[in-house]
Design brief:
Blueprint (H helix, E strand, L loop, with lengths): L1 E3 L2 E5 L5 E5 L3 E3 L4 E7 L9 E10 L5 E9 L4 E3 L5 E2 L2 E2 L3 E3 L2 E9 L4 E10 L15 E2 L8 E5 L5 E5 L5 E5 L5 E5 L9 E7 L9 E4 L2
Antiparallel strand pairs: 1-4, 2-3, 5-6, 6-13, 7-12, 8-13, 9-10, 9-13, 11-12, 14-15, 15-18, 16-17, 16-19, 19-20
Length: 211
């Protein structure tokens, strides 16, 4: 921040001086644009969130000695070894839930990309101790690829099929959900589903056998 002000000094009687000051003008010669993104909207305890931060220098001159700070949510912890600057691994300072890293220079009209991961925990998060309700899976018939069920609106549904492939979807406002199986289901195969409501831990798994 640069502060610029003009002053006029006038001598009056008895050797006194009077100052006249212009209105103070404050200018910011630096213009940085910051954009932060994450890779998921719903996450369970113990899962990771990947953050990407773009810092763009929109000024016509280079900017030096830029201090980056990120204050993590108390329900998360930083994942060691995940911090990268322009695809290269670096080691920020970690104090409590605050990440600090000093960028030596951002050139004019250039962007610095910062990436890091956090892992969700139960610390300081009362809602995390609440478990999601279990979803339901409607009866399955042989050779079908459609798996339907019910749940809590906006909750995330994770369906695991024989062979281990997992398909995700969200419950709609009518409390229903639907996914497509990776193959036609056969008699005796078992499908498993869990539900994750926003701010809660995953539900107990429910299963449905193809009859």
């Amino acid at each position: 921040m640069i502060k610029n002000q003009s002053i006029v000094e006038v001598e009056v009687c008895d050797d006194k001086k009077v100052e006249f000051k212009s209105e103070e003008i404050e200018t910011t010669p630096i213009k940085l644009k910051i954009k932060k993104e994450h890779d998921c909207d719903v996450v369970a305890i113990g899962e990771k969130i990947h953050y990407t931060v773009h810092i763009e220098n929109e000024c016509s001159t280079d900017v030096k000695n830029v201090l980056f700070k990120d204050h993590l949510d108390p329900c998360t912890k930083f994942v060691e070894g995940s911090f990268k600057v322009n695809e290269h691994e670096h080691h920020p300072e970690i104090e409590g839930h605050t990440i600090t890293y000093r960028i030596s220079e951002i050139e004019s009209c250039q962007t610095v990309k910062i990436e890091f991961d956090v892992e969700t925990t139960e610390e300081c998060c009362t809602s995390c101790h609440m478990q999601s309700q279990a979803p339901t899976i409607l009866p399955l018939v042989p050779l079908t690829t459609a798996v339907l069920g019910t749940g809590v609106p906006s909750a995330l549904i994770k369906v695991t099929f024989p062979g281990g492939e997992c398909v995700e979807t969200n419950v709609n406002n009518l409390r229903s959900w639907r996914v497509t199986a990776p193959h036609r289901l056969h008699r005796g195969e078992v499908v498993t589903a869990i539900q994750i409501e926003p701010g809660k831990s995953p539900s107990n798994p429910v299963t449905r056998t193809v009859r």
